[in-house]
Each structure stands twice: as structure tokens, then as C-alpha cells.
Amino acid sequence: MTTSRIIFVSLLVIAFHAFSGLVHGQADPGVPHELEGVEIQENLNVQLPLDTEFVDHDGNTIKFGDLFTGERPVLLQLGYLKCPQLCNLVLNEMTDTIRDIEWTTGKEYDVVSISINPDETHELAAAKRTSYVLMYDRRKSGNGWHFLTGSQESSKAVADAVGFKYRLQPDGEYAHAAGLFVITPDGRLSRYLYGASHAPGTMRLALLEASDGRIGSTLDRFILWCHVYDPDSRSYVLLAVRLMQVGGFLTLFIILIGLGWMWLSERRKNDSSDGEGLSPPDGLIHGVER
Predict the structure, then answer these.
(1) What is the full per-residue pLDDT of the chain (290 aa) written as tens digits?
(2) CA 110/CA 146 separation, integer angstroms
């Protein structure tokens, strides 16, 4: 058998085994063992464990529910403070994004970061919080930033509720996915923002949706009404039905305006005709003959 035929037959064998593996669901996904089970599983509308205790950046023991006033939505980030790469990237990108939104932390919404590493201290959390408040660079916005540490049971309770799956590595680092969680003012999971980078428009609509219209203007609520979240593109897209409804309303409005204008024009013509028929005879002004 010639060399070319040997190569051709070998390629056929490799292709056959690859195809067989795909058919029987045995294809190797190429996921390292360390990353198995590291993912985000959606649990929309789940109630977060608000009775869970944490230590805030000031060293005070608080309940998670203390951060939910019932008035403002919350941007929740899970990770750990000494993360060498991904957590910093998520927080950096988040801070850059919310700087492009006119709403201010502590006023329209809050930011909460929870460490999944039980060995990290509130002093480290305080330093991390200070750096991001300075990066955010808005006056009187510090009250809206909360960095929490606590026991493994506490952080895992919140992580399990939102579907944030992570794994402790042999070197002491944590493998985890990137994303943010948008929480309603009463502590329910409203929306997932996957990845590290998010468009300001997407984050704005997610916060508005979570607040149930409690923040933002009438125009903001109208824009949200015209959009729907698309899980495939992971962003908000215009809803065709809403556009048709708006178009139908505008069409009806224009028709009514046109009919009203025609009615007024016709009435003016009739009034003018009636006035001409009642004018005094020629040569008489108030009964006085010229």
C-alpha cells in the first residue's frame, strides 16, 4: 500500500471513531478535571437566604437581608478577594460599566460582593471596597458598596441559591465562572449577566427590570416595556409585538387627529355660511337707511 493510501485510510479511521463518539455522546469535551462542575445554573426568581450571616467591611456581623431595603435592586458579585485574575476583571469591568450609567450606587441600586473564601478577613474586604469606591469616583456613593466575608456555609448558601458552582483547587485557588446577579429589592434573583463585560444599556435595563419600575423615569419604563431579555444574545432586544402595539396606537392617534381637524374645518365653514345669511340688507346699518 502506498504512503498516500495509508494516510487516507488513517484519516478515514479517525473520522469514523470521532463520528461514532459524537453519535453515542462519548465525544471528549476537552474540559479539564479541575473545571468540571464549574458553571452557573439559572434559578430565576429564587428567594435568596436573607437570614444568612456575614461580616461586613467594617467588621460587623450582619444578616444578608439587612442589605435589602425593599427599595433598591442589588448587583451581586461572587468570587474571592485574592483572586489573581477573573474576580478583579469582573469587578473592574462592572465598575467601568456603571460609571457610564447616570444612576448612582446607594441611591438607585447597591453593589454587594461576597467572598467564597472563608479565610479572607474583613480588613481585606475594606481595602478592596475602598479601591473600587475610588475607581467609581462619585461623591456620596460609598454607602452603596458592600464587601462581605464569612464562613464557608454562609457563602455557599448564597452561591447555591443563585446557581454559582465553584471548586477549590489543590493550590488553594478557586475555579469559578464569571458573571453578575441582579437581585430585586426584596431579595429575589431577577436576572443573570454572564461574562465579565456588559453593555451599559443591558445593565441599566436589568436594574430597571429588577426594581419593578421603582427607579428610572417614565421613559425608562417605556423602553423596558418595548424590550425583552434574549437568553441567546444575553441582552435585551426590541419586542416585535410591542412595536406593533406602539405602531397601532400611533396610527389610531394620527387618524383621530385627522378626523378632528376635518371636523373643525367643516364646522368653521358652516359657521361662516350661517353668518353670511344673517347679514343686514344692503343700505341698512342698525336699522338706519343710507
Answers:
(1) 444 443 333 433 334 333 333 333 344 455 555 566 788 999 999 999 999 999 999 999 999 999 998 889 999 999 999 998 899 999 999 999 999 999 999 999 999 999 999 999 999 999 999 999 999 999 878 889 999 999 999 999 999 999 999 999 999 999 999 999 999 999 999 999 998 889 998 899 899 988 876 555 454 454 544 545 566 665 656 664 444 444 544 565 576 677 677 767 777 777 666 655 555 555 544 555 44
(2) 8
Complete DSSP assignment for 262-289? HHHHHHHHHHHHHHHHTPPPTTEETTEE
CA distances from 215 to 143, 159, 220 (A): 18, 27, 9
Domain 53-197, classified CATH 1.20.1440.230, yes or no: no
Is the Cβ–Cβ distance between 177 and 76 less than 8 Å? Answer: no
Neighbours of 104 (CB within 10 A): 15
Residue 50 cell numbers, joined: 436573607
Amino acid at 189: L
| CA of residue 137 relative to chain centroid, distance | 22
In this structure, the chain runs to a length of 290
Burial class (CB within 10 angstroms; exposed 0-12, middle 13-18, buried 19+) of 252: exposed
d(C-alpha 79, C-alpha 19), whole Å: 39
User: Residue 64's closest CA among 157, 177, 152?
Assistant: 157
